[in-house]
């Protein structure tokens, strides 16, 4: 006669507890059908689903587990599982799995409640909840915190677009980021990350900074903003802005380059990606002059951007083809993936403007970073709350895995 029993053990975390309990089960030649363990603030939650044969042996081994648990200051509970219940559990393993990632400066109970309420309404069952971020020390300023909670959910939403729309709405309401992605073999097996430069790797639009120095800042900034919102054709707007920079001295380019600052988390992200063996690239509608400076500083593998022609120390205002616009970025992403011998599913693209959408849409993971509303709505994922290193959480990496 076979019996299936769920054993739940809770109490203070102690070294050797797992060995002690499973050692008792081993003597009874018990089969382990499922096992899980978590420790939260030094409190253990340990569960084992076991299959036993022989009623007399079952009684003896459960008594031994109960007594050993008492010796170790643990609470032990036994729950019989019927064949029908076990059959339903086995059937459920074939359901699709997804990952919901919550990013916030400080994670609150309301954040968890709202996310879990939406997943429940879309018939997604939460299997695991894990904290990927490190422990936040007392007294850390609120704007410097970094929190990430990952939900592993089982099931397939009937309307994925509606689910994403709800997540986006509460993300805006609560000033958090919520990512929803399929839990596939590619999630931690991506090999190439491509970045936009302006307002993504750096916290400025370089062409706007050059325009300010040339005395045409307002005119160029207006064109840039309309282009990033998708209201203007990028190539036409680029030519118009370049013409306004005619006569700018190269010394100004050097001054602007020295003033540029990296976006929050950019240095950490690139360093981690390099440590993990990822290839990286800048695919920018900006200028190679500045992109190559970033390449040297960060150790970027590839750079594709627009030339900034200079004659006799002055910017000519002319444009050299091919212009790196949205379609060109997508083409370059495909080219680099092929060159690296990987599929597009193994690529990540990060950008903030409408001209980044083509590459964001074809990458395995497309991330709109501190992006315009149109881009956030159109991209697969969006990060606005944390820095660029928040992308590591979307890949499933924990802070303690950092080098």
Automatic annotation (TrEMBL):
Pathway: Amino-acid biosynthesis; L-serine biosynthesis; L-serine from 3-phospho-D-glycerate: step 3/3. Residues 6-81 form the ACT domain. Its cofactor is Mg(2+). It holds the Pfam family ACT_PSP_2. Belongs to the HAD-like hydrolase superfamily. SerB family. InterPro entries: ACT-like_dom_sf (IPR045865), ACT_dom (IPR002912), HAD-like_SerB (IPR050582), HAD-like_sf (IPR036412), HAD_sf (IPR023214), PSP (IPR004469), PSP_ACT (IPR049148). This is Phosphoserine phosphatase. The keyword Hydrolase applies. Its EC number is 3.1.3.3. It is an enzyme of class 3 (hydrolase). It catalyses: O-phospho-D-serine + H2O = D-serine + phosphate; O-phospho-L-serine + H2O = L-serine + phosphate. GO terms for molecular function: hydrolase activity. It comes from Pseudomonas neustonica. Keywords: Amino-acid biosynthesis, Hydrolase, Magnesium, Metal-binding, Serine biosynthesis.
